[in-house]
Amino acid sequence: MVIAEYSNLIRVKQLISNSLMSLELLESKEGNLFLSSSAKQPEGFVCFATTPALFCRFLEGLVTLQTLLDESPSRFIEINGKDKTTLYSRNDMEVILTSGDKTIRELTDSCPIEIW
Length: 116
Description:
By secondary structure, the protein is an alpha+beta fold. The chain has three helices and seven strands. The model has no long low-confidence stretch (mean pLDDT about 85).
């Protein structure tokens, strides 16, 4: 089982950082990929696992940011709020990402990211 714990992850690349949202790619020591994204509900930052195939579909503009979270292999997600960090079961709550209804192209239309 892959559990997202932000403090144990290595930063790979800040994909988006603006006044509306943040999206960061992270990696575990074992090579698993994770994303940290702004959340609208509950408010804060959500850290969740992804797969290389799913992440590539997102980079190709085939799925939205919310779909990336919804199809995540993470059964548990970490939410960093203003006052606390909590680990939640995805079965216990619905997380709505900031700009989750957008694809990478829509998110970066005015400020493209460099895909390495």
